[in-house]
Write a structure and sequence with these properties.
The chain is α/β, with parallel strands linked by helices. It contains 13 helices and 12 strands. Helix 1 runs parallel beside helix 13, helix 3 runs parallel beside helix 4 and helix 7 packs across helix 8. The protein is globular. The structure holds NADP nicotinamide-adenine-dinucleotide phosphate (NAP). Pathway: Amino-acid biosynthesis; L-methionine biosynthesis via de novo pathway; L-homoserine from L-aspartate: step 3/3; Amino-acid biosynthesis; L-threonine biosynthesis; L-threonine from L-aspartate: step 3/5.
């Protein structure tokens, strides 16, 4: 039996779901692969909970309940307040480090742990969308897996890597990879004003607390950069300009003022919807990546385009390659949500653990 030690950073929505999934598949992994997954550390923004020999199920369940009730790990009796994830690493054993935070600036720490023999699994896009040199250091020799960063549980990165590994060459990737922006496009096409659609999405929790974090397009640009870099393109965020849904002047105001002024955007969006309708086209927020460059923005697509058939919050990734030249290879489905995101991360953890045995 091989024991694989896990240190998890981030015990939010996806983090708690992942812990539950790990606990529920543990026995099956022992019988299927003789691999035992063992949490030695959990970290949130308040501190860590750790045990170099493995946290007990009781301690893990108590931590989950405490987090679900809004508490911090640092407040638990066995928790260590103010400590960062590094303090949860065992001194003599490599681990799989799992980043389910949205924190920036972790890449150097991860690269150090990789050099010391650990592996990394990410749902957090930020370490892979920092400098190109960090992307290379994290991903060389397959030390980091990051399926969940692009399409949550959808097999996007693994599909792309399989195409590249088998000698195919990528001509174009086109993708709608924001559930929030997909929902807004569907509402616009149904004749709903943008202001009404954004307020509804905000109320239902489809958007970030400040909807501008979705509407800026930066999250889509970050995913596009990760796909481009996976293809070996040494780009930075500046190479992927994203078209925001609001003018620069509305970027500076408070969130409340932004929400109050949403009606200012309605007329321009209604005109774009009308123009698309007139041309029998669909309006989609699309990332396009080719070896020559990338763009992220609202596009009018002909009805027969694979992305035109998308409805609601689903994602779609279309890969045109030397082998899939006439009809692209398409991956489609729900591209967000805690359960599918955690499942994407768990798939990466198991694949990493199997390689280690
Ligand atoms: N939700 C989805 O559908 C989805 C899909 C794909 C990818 N993702 C990515 O998955 C990640 C997690 O998403 P989520 O929805 O679970 O977010 P979340 O609920 O906001 O949870 C984030 C967690 O990270 C912790 N954290 C923040 N900064 C930290 C730091 N410096 N050190 C340690 N822990 C830190 C937070 O601590 P506290 O609990 O103390 O605040 C919290 O536990 C994000 O990067 C997100 O972009 C999410």
């Amino acid at each position: 039996m091989k024991q694989i030690f896990l240190v998890q950073i981030g015990i939010g929505g996806v983090g708690r779901e992942l812990v539950e999934q790990v606990l529920s598949v543990r026995k099956a992994l022992i019988s299927r692969y003789a691999i035992e997954l063992k949490y030695v550390g959990l970290a949130d923004s308040s501190g860590v909970l750790r045990s170099p020999t493995g946290l007990s199920d009781d301690a893990i369940r108590a931590a989950l309940a405490h987090k679900a009730a809004g508490g911090g790990l640092g407040e638990l009796p066995e928790g260590e307040a103010g400590q960062a994830w590094q303090s949860a690493l065992p001194s003599d054993q490599p681990v799989i480090l799992i980043d389910l935070s949205a924190a920036s600036g972790q890449e150097t720490g991860f690269v150090e742990q990789i050099a010391a023999g650990s592996r990394v699994v990410l749902a957090n896009k930020k370490p892979l969308s920092a400098a190109w040199a960090d992307f290379v250091a994290l991903t060389q020799h397959g030390a980091t897996r990051y399926e969940a960063t692009a399409g949550a549980g959808l097999p996007v990165i693994s599909t792309l890597q399989a195409l590249l590994d088998s000698g195919d060459s990528i001509t174009k990737i086109e993708a709608a990879m924001s559930g929030t922006l997909g929902y807004l496009c569907s509402e616009l096409e149904a004749g709903v004003a943008l202001s009404t659609a954004v307020r509804a999405a905000h109320r239902m929790g489809y958007t970030e607390p400040d909807p501008r974090d979705d509407l800026s397009g930066a999250d889509v640009a970050r995913k596009a950069l990760i796909l481009a870099r996976t293809c070996g393109l040494p780009w930075e965020m500046a190479n992927i300009p994203a078209e925001p849904w609001f003018p620069a002047a509305m970027a500076e105001v408070s969130r409340n003022e932004f929400m109050d002024r949403l009606e200012e955007l309605d007329a321009a969006f209604a005109a774009r919807v009308a123009e698309a309708k007139e041309q029998g086209a669909a309006l989609r927020y699309v990332a396009t990546i080719t070896p020559e460059g990338a763009s992220v923005g609202l596009r009018m697509l002909p009805a027969e385009h694979p992305l035109a058939s998308l409805r609601g919050a689903d994602n779609l990734f279309s890969f045109t390659t030397a082998r899939y030249a006439e009809r692209p290879l398409v991956v489609r489905g729900p591209g967000a949500g805690q359960a599918v995101t955690a499942a994407g991360v768990l798939g990466d953890i198991v694949a990493t653990a199997r390689e280690w045995v």
